[in-house]
Write a structure and sequence with these properties.
The complex is a heterodimer of chains A (432) and B (312). Chain A is an alpha/beta fold and 432 residues long. Chain A has two domains: 163 residues, D-Maltodextrin-Binding Protein, domain 2 (3-Layer(aba) Sandwich), CATH 3.40.190.10; 208 residues, D-Maltodextrin-Binding Protein, domain 2 (3-Layer(aba) Sandwich). In chain A, strands 1, 2, 3, 4, 5, 6, 7, 8 and 9 form a nine-stranded mixed sheet that branches. Chain A is globular, with a radius of gyration of 23 Å. In chain B, strands 1-2 form a two-stranded antiparallel ribbon. Classes of the chains: A alpha/beta (432), B mainly alpha (312). Chains A and B meet through helix 1, helix 3, helix 11, helix 17 and helix 18 of A and helix 2 of B.
Amino acid sequence: MRPFRAAVTTGSAALAATLLLTACSSGSSTTGAQDANEKVTLTVDLFGTFGFKEAGLYDEYMKLHPNITVKQSDTQDEGQYWQALQTKLAGGGGLADVQGLEVGRIASVMQKQADKFTDLRTLGAGDVNDGLVPWKAAAVKTADGKVLGAGTDIGPEAVCFRTDLFKEAGLPTDRTELAAKWATWEGYLALGKEYVAKAKPGNAWTDSAAGMFTAEVGQQKVRYADESGKAVHDSSPVVQTAWADATKLVADGLSAKLPQWTPEWNKAFSTGKFATLSCPAWMIGYIKGQAGDAFAGKWDIAAGPGKTGNWGGAYLAVPKTAKHPKQAAELIKWLNAKEQQVKLFTKQGSFPSSTGAQGEIKTVKDAYFNNAPIGEIFSEAAGNMPAQVLGTEDGVVGKAFTDALGEVERTNTAPATAWQHALDNVKKASGN
Amino acid sequence: MATLSAPLRSSQPAVARPRRGARLAPYGFLAPFFVLFAAFGLFPLLYTAYVSLHRVELQTSERMDWLGFQNYTRLFEDPFFWNALGNTFTIGLLSTVPQLLLALGLAHLLNYRLRGRTFFRVAMLMPYATSVAAATLVFAQLFGRDYGLINWALSTVGLSPVDWQANTWASQFGVSLIVTWRWTGYNALIYLAGMQSIPQELYESAAVDGASRWQQFRHITVPGLRPTIVFTVVVSTIGATQLFGEPLLYEGNSGGGISHQYQTLGLYMYEQGWTFFHLGRAAAVAWVMFLLIVVLALVNAAIAARRNRTDR
């Protein structure tokens, strides 16, 4: 027992010493200097693939502003990113100069944490959302006119598919023909059955029931909460229809049963595990990143069922604790400008929220996707897109349903039981 | 006599009662531990109790609304809490029992004169020295459903692949295996140390009496190791009750699987606090876990005490 006790005391002494050291060293941190040419390192913390780095926008910005260095860190899974962000916001430390926010979280931030982010008007960037589609800008404007974030991209939906696998299974690969065949979700499921009957065993039609469910729900104006903020996820016919379609997908054996945003899912982009994928515009960049150059020309894009829908999209915000708020605001204003939004779409596929940029990308084609007219396809979906009602719990509710669909496809849970699990999970997560 | 005893008597109190400073010195030496314990052990414990009686949300952590025991009643009504409690118990059994049995066997083997004995002993401790995160991430890769090594090996011998994440028993087995892998060597070394304090003569005389290796193990090693075994059982029980890192990193989320099928109490607490941001509720879970561990430790101690008494 004695050596153990001694180890604890020396351990605690060492801990105390480290605490003292860190306390001393953090005292001498940077102070806001006024010099315009001062060397500044801006930190940007994001989730998924925003594509700023990949499209060369940071390099361009640093060339224009030689005193600025932009450093980006990112987390692939938005759920984990959000969790870390909340911990940092509560602790008040470790936040970057610019933080990304997903559209499903924006209502929660606006209601509960508006005081943790800087009003962009006070940083000379109050006009950052002028010229965006109205709902995108409205979602980050408080009742008293504060602008708490800059709207980056929106997520019009289409379907990405593998031409090589389609050919093998004897399916057409012409985009218009396919779009006509899967003009509805029933059509999409029917073609899937045809594919699975002819494809190699083990090759499924799409990645997961969750992907299809999210895409289908995203086509409606009211999803998980109505205009008054009341939760309607358990009664909404929209959710019920999408649930029924997604469980039918599983029953027909069309799902590869891969949980999205996991390493297994990522790997499957470069195998034949699934032939189609519900594709919001930003997924283009993700596919390129995961499948790599070897798969250029094997992926293609066609307009999806209903030719509408919004899945995801993001905002950039400056936390109150940012070390260089002024420079951060300048950066996001530049990144969000029409020209950059056009570049981002052309190179990465993130669909512009700026109406001006939307006007300029109508003819863009993507070589990686067999020269698919991505400008035309996504513009049409964006044009039909409803101005979605955003609820504070959208992120939590969405996850509860996609997890429950995971149970249906991976553990053979009866759909009715899984539905009840989803509702239980929402209740467990809720604050009351 | 009388002249001698007087000065002696007067000097006695001086010996029995040392100077004030010397008397306080031991407390002085103990003080740093207790000061640190108060700051990093006792205060958090009490503050957690205080928080558990309030509604506290991470996103608005300045606000504290008095709730009384509502966090606790809600907890006991939550099926997910009972689910987590059950999982903690089954994963605890699945990991602790094989781990201690294996450790006992390994220690027995290491107790023989072996070539390269030191190497084996050091090798045993390697998993313990590996970080939980690194080990779990490697195991998670091995257990991958579509591209994992284990399912590949199963398929080469004609068995159908197992969904090591979504399947309840398979995932609990996977998590338990990581725990077993990490702690077996550590426990083996503790057993080994215990075994080396058992006098060699006992074995020699047993051998003279014709006892086999197995009989020697059963009738000399195991009884000789009883206090050590009690210690490892207590420590492993506490460890199993607090199990957290392995299930968290197994799939990288705090839900403990899509059906929460391997969500332990530690993970349930973390999910309430850091995924759903209900700090008050998480604090209530923390206190329930604390009391549970105290009860388990008392039960362990009672069983050990009773066994000792009946043996004599």
